[in-house]
Amino acid sequence: MAEIVYPQGCRPITDDLGPDELVRRLKVLAHTLQGLGQDEGMYQQYIPLALHLADEFFLTHSSKDVQLLIACCIADVLRVYAPEAPYKDQEQVKTIFLFLINQLQGLRDPKNPAFKRYFYLLENLAYVKSFNMCFELEDCQEIFCALFSLMFKIVNIEHSTKVKAFMLDVLCPLITESDVVSNELLNVILINLVEPNKREHKHAFALAKELIVKTSETLEPYIQAFFNHVLILGKEEKSLLIFSKVYELIYELYQCCPSVLLSVLPQLECKLKSAHFQERLSGVALLARMFSEPGSQLAKQYPALWRAFLGRFNDISVPIRIKCVQYCMHFLVHHPDLRKDITETLKLRQHDANEQVRYEVVMAIIATAQRDFQAVAESEDLLHFVKERTLDKKFKIRKEAMSGLAMIYKKFLTEESVPAATEKAVQWIKDKILHGYYMTALEDRLLVERLLNTSLVPYTLQSAVRMKKLYYLMSNVDDNATKAFIELQKHQLAVRRTVAEWIELHRKPPSPSVQKELIAKVLHISTKFLPESVKAQEFLNKFSQHMKQSPELLQGMETILNPNVSCEVCVRTTSNVLKKLGQPVMTNLYYNTVKMLLERVSSVMIDHESLLILVEYVEGSVTGMNTTIAEECGIDTKKAAERGLKLLVMLSFVFPAHFLHEDVLTRLTCMLELDDEAVAPHILAALTFLGKYRPLSEACPALFPRLITLCKAYAEVGSPKQAKNAVRCLFVNVPEQRTQIFTEILETLKATLNPYSEHYRTAIVTLGHIAHNLPDNFPVHIKNIVSRKIVKELLVREGGGATGGAGESWCPEPELPEETRCKLEGLKCMARWLLGLKKDELSAQKTFRMLNAFIVHKGDLLQQNRLSKAEMAHLRLAAGAAMLKICEQKGVGDQFTAEQFYNLSHLMVDEVPQVREAFAAKLHKGLSKGIPNKCLPLDFMGMYALAGREPDKRIRSVIRQFMMADVVRRREYVRNITVGTKVERAVSQLPHILPDYMLVFAVPVLTHDPAFTAYDNVAQLKIIKNCLWFTLEPLITRNDFYCYGFYKSLIERMKVHKDAVNEMDDALNYKLWAVCDLAMSVIWARSTSFELREFPSDARIPTMYFAPQPEDFVNTRVFLPPELQHPGGELGFQPKRVAIAPAQDETRIRKRPRLERENTNDVEPSEASETQIQLPGLEQTPETDIDEMQTKRE
After folding, report:
1. What is the C-alpha to C-alpha distance for residues 521 and 515, in angstroms, rounded to an integer?
2. SS (HEC) of 528-541
3. Mean pLDDT score of the chain, rounded to an integer?
4. pLDDT, tens only, 50-61
5. How far apart are CA 426 and CA 445, in angstroms?
6. Is the distance from CB of 970 to CB of 932 less than 8 angstroms?
7. pLDDT higher for 287 or 626?
8. pTM of the full structure
9. Where in or outside the cell (predicted)?
10. Any idea what DSSP says for residue 1185?
């Protein structure tokens, strides 16, 4: 070995020196080497020294200081001899560089006293790119991987920018000047970009990003090759972590250096269409994130990839569709240019068959509205998607949709300016929310009640502002929403009354009877007013115990339920009560149940203070002195006045206690004195409701004489509407002076009750209402007046000749001659008189005969041909309406004959469409109120069958909605009465309530249809068949308890009876039996289950319309022509098969034909009707035609 020469002043470095001495000598040597320049060929004598320093003894010395100084010396040797290092042996070179890498670990801690030397080592290595000589080694990648790994491992927050720069100076050349970059090295670099390294080693993440940016041109082909390997070839190396993080890696690379992915991103399209779910999901998650990033231009740069991504909204896999929809909020907020595409995809997804997808659609749109209101506000389509989901079959979706719309509406109320689309949407949002009250589920009703108080009319607003919002709401909602608002207030009133009775029981001394009442009330409240009745019952019992133990709690409930409580006190007390029930968390079911109950009983909208303000607003609109309310509501003053008056009437029914203050009543009385014909009826109606709560003679005696004077004047010389309401108002408000006041009014009527008086019509109306309200006070006197003045001098008096409607078949009532209008009021007067009598059967029979004559003679009772067509139409309609009104009252209402019933039914097929529509409305009104005793008998449901041949589609649709509403109402009543202890009694009532018995009355009504002339006329029978299906459709297809056996029995029993009106008329009986056969044919064709199970009620046949045959009578003949006999049935239409599972029901669910699609990863879109609830009376439910579909029975 050559002799080792040391630089001047340096002593020999040998292995026999102690560590301290060795360190001292190495320091001198290191210092000397630092001073040497890179002069070529000058230092050949030191080559043996350089080789000596790389001796294994020094590289593995136990002293760290020795190793560090040796490393510094070697680094300087590499610098001085660059580019030709004195180390030639490959193994030695490898050992040296691994040693240097190991020494660089000292950079980890900048506070280390030796850090300066470590930094010098790094600087030196970077300066001359010392690691580049490793390129000549076979396993250079191993060294590089070790170096890169170390750098990423040691970099930390305490490192200066300079340190990091030198690190990069060391690392970058190893990539940019290398012939190859191995996957192993890529793994070391790229793994720092993804979790968990990204989160746990933020500085390594930053260093890796900077390294990639600096070396992007060199790395690009290697990164592309790597992704080709994975994405296209589907190969991966288990040993390398980045293979499992491919999609994360693409995202991070796109963030830091998009250029390296130019040819990689298009390859993702194949992953979006992969047959493997996980690959598609990963691809979708990645692209959704990348496309939706703020400022991302990816969709514009890669339009094909964007279209492929949009296709995944229709993926067959639910999690993928959910993932797509979840990112929609980011698209809508950050990318206005992509909103159109996203809106189109959401249009399909809001009808998705999967409820979670539909839920996410709603949540995405609502979240967008919360983040960027403008994004949603400008798009009517997005708001319409939410609107549609308010009728979703799942409550959680309906809840979010309704709450989202309410949030938008509230924002509109509180912001001064909103986009035009929002203003347009607000017009239907309030209606849509209130329409939710038509839902049958209790959760929906509770939700609407909550949204009314929190969003539509926020209870947190000051009284004056709150009343303006209420006025605005009620001025701009549609009729259905108005009805829903009234129904909501009525429901809350019923809940308040029931809960008040329950609370009152807690003040009574404990006893078995009180305990029994408490149990009954809890059962009633939990089943009628709260969802999940079993849990609600448990928590209400717990609350009951809580109130018994805590007097403050009981006192609080009494305060909340006090009719005179102010909104502010009610809100504060409700809050205090809830604080005593534990933490307001979702898991505290006790708290949430009582909170639901309190939301229903709390009066936070109206109190005395706010009501007085509202009355002032209404008065300002009525008098025209204050037009600001009308302007704020966006309507004219006249409409604002009308809506305000109607609102007061409704509130007087729900909150009468707040009206019974002198300041409010004084303002109402002032309005009553106004010279406006439209105002008094509303104010009188409101005062009537107040009188029912507490007579005004007691509540406000000071004002009462003035009120009596006004009411008497209206009853005697006011308009008919004013007179009607004045009589009612006096009746309820003067219980002590009724006889005296009404005697005086009757005396006045003697003068005005003649055709020459200008107040003749008013006198007739007043007489009718007095007769109705006080039947026992003046029985003989009124009967004589009715008989002489109404019947003889008005209804059967010769006259007429004036034309109404210029020969037209119909005209509005005000255009009729005055005499005819008086006759119309006369018919109503007779009906009211009979309703008041209740049990005068003889008078009822006479009246029915007269009313029947009006109908039979088409309105021209005396047949003098002096009446115009319009007059006749109005008169027969009024006679029909009077008959319906009388039939609501048991006693007098039971005196009609079957023939009169059939004649009355002919108004359903009257030649004048307005008569048909108005009569059907009256029929529906009579059938829908006060089930079971205060409504029309079930017989009248049979009249709906004649609407099956209604030529006007709109009228037919309206009547169909009436019928369906009446069917639903009766089913709900049956459901309620059959739950409880008195089941036997309830079952006995079923034949008079159950809508399934409609068929028994529809069959004879159709038999007596004047258009049905022959039992074997095929054309006529087809019309009858349509009429039967019109009636049977809601009974068969929308009935969970449908029983084929019951209908079969019903029809078989009808067929062994004769017609009760003309028993011996064979032609009529054949028509009856033909209709029975047709009904059986329809039922057989449209039934999906042929169970012969027991029905809750026996098949009873009413003898009023069906005459019994001898017991041995058998009727097996089929009375239908061969072409109308059902091909699948045998004699009597017995089915060949006895059971077809409901799941095979093709009449209810008609799937679209499946389209041939290129991509099997796509899901078939759902129909809107499959995810949506139909509300009878609100939404147009599709009507199926009897011949439209035939059920398949192979």
Report:
1. 10
2. HCCCCHHHHHHHHH
3. 85
4. 677 777 777 787
5. 21
6. no
7. 287
8. 0.79
9. Nucleus
10. P
